[in-house]
Design goal:
four-stranded mixed β-sheet; 18% strand; name from scop; 4 strands; globular; 94 residues
């Protein structure tokens, strides 16, 4: 999950799902601006999903269609986010 803190800190958001056993790459599962972005972020917070702020990446992700795998040119920045999420999850376990 990413959002754009420059605007309203909750104005743009995108959410990805990655299930390596089902998909070759993460898939776009939600995106939006304004009220939709706020709702995406609320749902993430309710479920304890960490939020990563990256306005450039959210702008690129916003161009993708829903339920599509991310293109290979986004593998590196998404891998960095996955690494961030794994670290956060490990810290929460301790």
């Amino acid at each position: 999950m990413t959002e754009d803190p420059e605007k309203d800190s909750r104005e743009s958001a995108a959410a990805l799902r990655y299930r390596p056993e089902d998909n070759a790459a993460p898939r776009m599962v939600a995106k939006g601006e304004g009220e939709i972005a706020k709702r995406i972020i609320e749902i993430a917070e309710q479920h304890g999903i960490p939020i990563r702020h990256d306005p450039d990446l959210v702008a690129v992700l916003a161009r993708l269609d829903l339920d599509t795998e991310i293109p290979s040119e986004l593998y590196q920045p998404i891998a960095e986010i996955l690494s961030f999420l794994y670290r956060v999850n490990e810290q929460r376990k301790q």
